[in-house]
Write a structure and sequence with these properties.
The chain is of the alpha/beta class. It has one domain: DHBP synthase. 31% of the residues lie in helices and 21% in strands. A hairpin with a 4-residue loop joins strand 1 and strand 2. The longest helix has 15 residues.
C-alpha cells in the first residue's frame, strides 16, 4: 500500500478518535463514519446526512472481535462462521449497554465485516466504526470522493480519497435470528 494512502488512513483514524466524522470507501458505496461510542460524533453524522435517528446505524469492522463491546460471544462465534459471497449486513441481538443512538431504540444492531481493502485497513486502526451511506437522505449513493465534496460540501472532517470499485449495490441484509433476507 502506498504511503499516501497509509497517511490518509492514519489521518482518518485520528479524526475518528477525536470525535470527527469521516467519509470513506466501503465495499458498496462511499460511507460516513465515526466513533460509534461518541454520541457527539453520531449526532453530527446524523445531522450531516439528515437521517432519522430512529432508523439506527450499521457498524463496520475488519474482524468479528471488533464487535465484542456490542454483541455477546454467542453472536461473535456465529459471525465468525459466516462466509458471505457478497457484502452482507447482519441484524443481531446486541448487549444492553449498546447506546440507543446506534440501535434506533431496538434490541438489535446492524453489523458488517468489510472485505474492501481501504475500509478494512481503516477498521484495523479504529476498531468498529459507524457506516452509513454518505449521500443525503433521498439522494443517489456517492461512489467517489469528489461526490462527497459536491453533495456534502466540506461537512465531514476528513475524506479518504478514492473511488468505489463496486457495482453500486447495497449490502444484503439478513436477520441473524430467523435467517430471513430483509433486503437483497
Amino acid at each position: 500500500m502506498n504511503n499516501d494512502l497509509e497517511q490518509s488512513l492514519l489521518s482518518a483514524a485520528e479524526s475518528v478518535a477525536d470525535d470527527g466524522v469521516i467519509a470513506y470507501p466501503t465495499d458498496t458505496v462511499y460511507g460516513l463514519g465515526c466513533n460509534p461510542l461518541s454520541e457527539k460524533a453520531v449526532t453530527r453524522l446524523l445531522k450531516i446526512k439528515n437521517r432519522d435517528p430512529e432508523k439506527g446505524l450499521i457498524l463496520l469492522a475488519a474482524e468479528p472481535q471488533q464487535f465484542s463491546a456490542f454483541i455477546d460471544n454467542k453472536w461473535l462465534d456465529w459471525l465468525t462462521q459466516q462466509k458471505p459471497q457478497q457484502p452482507t449486513t447482519y441484524i443481531v441481538p446486541c448487549v444492553e449497554t449498546v447506546p440507543n443512538w446506534l440501535t434506533g431504540n431496538r434490541n438489535t444492531l446492524a453489523i458488517r465485516i468489510t472485505a474492501e481493502e481501504i475500509s478494512r485497513r481503516l477498521c484495523l486502526k479504529t476498531g468498529a466504526i459507524v457506516s452509513t451511506s454518505a449521500n443525503l437522505q433521498g439522494q443517489p449513493p456517492i461512489m467517489d470522493s469528489e461526490g462527497i465534496t459536491t453533495q456534502l460540501k466540506h461537512q465531514p472532517d476528513y475524506v479518504i480519497p478514492g473511488k468505489i470499485n463496486a457495482s453500486n449495490q447495497s449490502s444484503l441484509i439478513v436477520d441473524a435470528i430467523s435467517g430471513n433476507i430483509l433486503r437483497s
